[in-house]
Amino acid sequence: MKKLIKTTSSILLVLFVSGCQVQNNLTTPAKPKIDTTLEIVSSDSLRSIPDMTAVAFEWQKVDDPRVDRYYLYRANMQEDGQKFKRVEVIKNRYTTHFTDQELQPNTQYTYALSAATKNGFESRPTKSYTVTTLPRLDAVSYIQAISDLPRQIKILWRPHESHRVEKYTLEKTSPATSRWSKLKTVSGRLNIEYIDSDLKDNVVYMYRVTARTFDGIDTLPSEIVKAQTKALPFGAENLVATNNQPRKISLNWEPSKSKDIIRYKVYSSSRANGSFKERANVNTDVLAYDDLVNEDGKIVFYKVTAVDKDYLETSLNMNAVMGSTLIKITKPIMTLAQIQGEKAILNWQSGDDRTVSYIIHKKIKEDLFNYKNETYTNITDLRYEDQDIIRGVEYTYRLQAVDEFGILSEKTSETTLILPKLQEVN
Fold this sequence. Notes:
The protein has strands at residues 5-6, 14-15, 33-34, 47-50, 55-58, 69-76, 83-90, 97-100, 108-116, 121-122, 129-132, 143-149, 152-157, 165-173, 181-187, 193-196, 204-213, 225-228, 237-241, 248-254, 261-269, 277-283, 288-292, 299-308, 321-324, 333-340, 343-349, 355-365, 371-379, 383-386, 394-403, 415-418. By secondary structure, it is mostly beta strands. It folds into 4 domains: 5-132, Immunoglobulins (Immunoglobulin-like), CATH 2.60.40.10; 143-228, Immunoglobulins (Immunoglobulin-like), CATH 2.60.40.10; 237-324, Immunoglobulin-like; 333-418, Immunoglobulin-like (Sandwich). The protein has a 6-stranded mixed β-sheet, with no helix packed on it. Strands 15-14-17-18 form a 4-stranded antiparallel β-sheet, with no helix packed on it. It has a 4-stranded antiparallel β-sheet with strand order 22-21-24-25, with no helix packed on it. A hairpin with a 7-residue loop joins strand 21 and strand 22 (277-283). Mean pLDDT is 90; it is low at 1-25.
């Protein structure tokens, strides 16, 4: 065992007179009761082994039969100077070993030991001995945090060189908080990896690791390392939606700026700020999509996201692109509806340049409650002569325009004509 560093002279203990509380709830007496006739513990026999937070002692027992116990005194040289505190009563005269614990690493302590009787009288103390506890273990020498993982950061560090290390404490913070919090305790000196999961996208996090020995002593924290989670991929570029197709909206876009895209997703909504639902999922070699909409003049808003190889998807927090189906054409304008001779004459004007033909809807009144309907299609003129009429019968006409895609306009208002019956001559 290492021999304690001796002072050059023997001293009486300078004791606290405050009666303050110390280790094991001992109280240093205001004035020790010294019996100069009691055998003194041999200073030359006192040995010690320092650790980081403890000092182990060994000494030669006292043969004086009046001795019942030993008193151990201690002074923290950095804090107390030569003001000693009684820190332990060792209640067996045959005891020759004791460990003073819960000390500070790399700290200088001075000790003295006295023999004592059962009724509290004690011998002169040993010469004062100074012991310095061992410094803390060095911090973990290497630590690394790996960026660009999907909502994860991988932390690696080098195993601590000391075999006294039992586990590691990993801490984390972020530039936004600057407040360290315990992340994980990793047991085992050789276990040197941890993956921090469920993180936010494209956010910087900082980490440090502290090693802990089997006897609960922490090293200093390692250096601080930082890493950033992977950003969400960029969405499709330059999305365009048509507004001139019959009951269909065609989408076209350019590839995402991100390099590891595996597919695109098409979303749609009836409102620019509404709830968007997925409509399609296409491979990266497809940069277009046809949305079949069974409605004329339907307005739809679209967003196209990209999905990368880690299944991260572009945020839907982007501007939507508006598309629409081809609107209905404008109905024709009726300009003439009258009976001329034995036929009904209808004249009208086109209401829309898209019109390619017209439909005439004819309703024939058969009795008070019943009508017969006839339809004439593919009319390309702006005039129609209906010769299929009977005197005294009510006929009602409506017009409807048709474009090249078969999209129909609204019908015109009803126009009713009657060819009067001939008057009988008496």
